[in-house]
Design brief:
Blueprint lengths: L1 E5 L3 H8 L7 E5 L14 E4 L4 H6 L5 E4 L5 H4 L9 E3 L6 H16 L4
Parallel strand pairs: 1-2, 1-3, 3-4, 4-5
């Protein structure tokens, strides 16, 4: 199994995932230009955005994990095959958003700067 991480923090993700999944070959890059031929054997893609040109080359791609809540950009890529599973980070920030909303209401009520 081959995982491609395309993100500015790709190396950090790799450091966290590699020990937990030693059977997976992980390629971490911050720019599309650094991917090279790895895209052709990629099974899993972890990213925010990717070009249609690279998706077209990803013939073995089975799963895209978007690092965003929305996935419109990914699902609208013309070369994305219908059988590729798309997942997102939707819902992971719910508790924190509730906390910050409550905090800001209190700050407004108490005239905090």
């Amino acid at each position: 199994m081959h995982l491609l991480i395309l993100n500015q923090s790709a190396e950090d993700y790799k450091k966290a995932l590699a020990p937990k999944f030693p059977e997976i070959s992980i390629h971490a890059v911050s720019k599309e230009e650094e991917i090279g031929n790895f895209i052709e054997k990629t099974d899993i893609l972890l990213t925010i955005r990717i070009s249609d040109h690279l998706i077209e080359k990803a013939s073995k791609l089975k799963w895209v994990q978007a690092l965003t809540t929305g996935v419109d950009y990914i699902i609208n890529l013309p070369s994305l095959r219908k059988e590729v599973l798309i997942t997102s980070t939707r819902g992971t920030h719910g508790p924190q958003m509730s906390e910050i909303a409550l905090l800001l209401m209190l700050a407004l009520n108490r005239n905090f700067p």
